[in-house]
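Q: I'm writing up a methods section and want to include an example of the input and output format. Could you take the sequence below and give the corresponding predicted structure tokens, formatted cleanly so I can copy it straight into the document?
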Amino acid sequence: MTAVREAKASAPDPAPGPPGAAGRPRVISGRVVRTRSGGISLRVRSRTVAVTAALLAALVAVAGVTLTTGDFDLSVGEVLQALTGEGTGIADFVVNTLRMPRLVTALCVGAALAVSGAILQSITGNPLGSPDIIGFTNGSAVGALVVIVVLHGSMTQIALGALIGGLATALAVHLLMVGRGIQGFRLVVVGIGVSALLLAVNSYLITRATFQEALEAQAWLIGSLGNRLWTHANAIGIAVAVLLPLAFFLSRRLSMVEMGDTTAMALGVDVARTRTVLLVISVALAAFATAVTGPIWFIALAAPQVARRITGSSGPALLPSALMGAVMLALSDLAVQRLFAPALLPVGTATGCVGGLYLIWLLVSESRKSRA
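A: Here is the clean output for your methods example:
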């Protein structure tokens, strides 16, 4: 059995804030947990642990309210009985057919988008580095609209088209940057240009659609968790189960890449390969999420920044980001279901309103920093 040793750690780290933000060095104390051989070590900060625990508690609370309230209220005991297969027919239908698939989809999509955004923001060193700003989300939308308008495909084919569109967009951005490096503002600027082009393609496809196809396309483009079944939940669940552990495994290398190419290479990191692998993971997470729900804006932009600020972390903080994204999307979906009932509003309207305000604040704060 492997023994574990603990030791106090204290090292100067940059002040928390957006990737690339300057700040005075500060001392962060923590606890380093490592195996006896020293092959595996991890620094654990008490503040990060506390925030992670609080986010887990918030997630459980949101899930509990989602499963017990609605047009047909249930007690916690009835929900637990339904989840274990011992509930009544009505409770089993409400929990396992209507509410649970939608909740699982929301949690997985929120986590996927948040980690995708956290990776891109770290790679680019820019708080605007997220799949919806750079254009990967619009690429997925183009793929879905092609299936809806041109191929007249089914929901499964629409999801597949969205996935292919997101991956194709990432490949296009990569080809535009061949020989120039995947880093800094260059990726953001190229991505914004590609995003604008794809948005024009989306508008053109809608103008060429029939009235019914345009309605279907517009409903998908808003982003919604309505009518999500276990097929959707299982698809995004499998994607998250495969991709998130890979992202967490590479998080230490991602933190080193944030220090700069020279420092990262001196520490033994293959910078180019690490950036490429992480970019593929980020794009895949965003593409799978968009394929399941349609474009849900600003979760990938805001969740990583909020998680980084409340944890005070100088690194990407992927686990808190994942939990923050899951809580934000599940809470947004709960709000549109309960506050605006009986109207059936898509969750994209809530994230768009809140995210738009956050984007304005972010742009103003970054403008002030650049003037200082």
